[in-house]
Design the sequence.
């Protein structure tokens, strides 16, 4: 008998979804993807993981022109919509990558280079057997922290109370991060309210913000 070494199974933090593309979205992908896509070697100051439809990302980049933003999103309609917003707003400081964020972090983002990482409303994966897919778990937080420069901020937000508490415990346990607040952060003005967050608020689910700084 003999055994075959198998590569470790990659656990993704997202579930691939299909979505309908409008004519505008098809046009954005055809015309703008090459112009506004991230190219390895591009400098990045702020990384957003899971930018959704991109409205909040575009608004933050527009309000912060001195820093270079990279939005990572695997949902094609979201990528297309953000490309359109970049072009419509003339945003020279925002680029898009349609890849797994952690693959990109390992391959293309140097250690100690990021001023901030934004993780806003990631999938909470509420079932216990799926918790390994959560984005904020110790091994992934360690990689995010490594890519931050000293004083860089990992800013997370969620409307899931259970996940919020798990995030707080996970981030507080990382030896290289320090909480800017005693617990959850007050809602920062620079984080725009998204359609998703408005729906959550209407359903009685407030947002929890966490802001941890690299030592």
Sequence:
């Amino acid at each position: 008998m003999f055994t075959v070494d198998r590569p470790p199974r990659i656990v993704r933090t997202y579930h691939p979804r299909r979505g309908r593309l409008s004519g505008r979205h098809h046009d954005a992908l055809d015309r703008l993807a090459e112009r506004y896509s991230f190219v390895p070697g591009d400098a990045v100051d702020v990384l957003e993981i899971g930018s959704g439809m991109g409205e909040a990302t575009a608004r933050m980049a527009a309000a912060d022109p001195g820093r270079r933003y990279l939005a990572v999103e695997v949902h094609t309609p979201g990528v297309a919509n953000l490309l359109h917003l970049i072009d419509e707003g003339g945003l020279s400081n925002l680029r898009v990558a349609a890849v797994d964020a952690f693959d990109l972090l390992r391959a293309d983002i140097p250690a100690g280079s990021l001023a901030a990482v934004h993780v806003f409303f990631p999938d909470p994966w509420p079932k216990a057997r799926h918790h390994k897919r959560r984005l904020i778990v110790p091994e992934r937080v360690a990689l995010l922290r490594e890519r931050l420069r000293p004083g860089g901020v990992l800013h997370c937000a969620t409307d899931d109370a259970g996940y919020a508490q798990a995030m707080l415990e996970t981030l507080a346990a990382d030896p290289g991060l320090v909480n800017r607040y005693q617990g959850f952060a007050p809602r920062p003005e620079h984080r725009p309210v998204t359609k998703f967050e408005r729906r959550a608020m209407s359903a009685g689910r407030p947002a929890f913000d966490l802001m941890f700084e690299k030592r």
Remarks:
- The first strand starts at residue 46 and ends at 49.
- Confidence is low (pLDDT under 50) at residues 1-9.
- The beta strands are 46-49, 69-72, 94-97, 114-120, 148-158, 177-179, 208-214.
- The chain has one domain: 24-214.
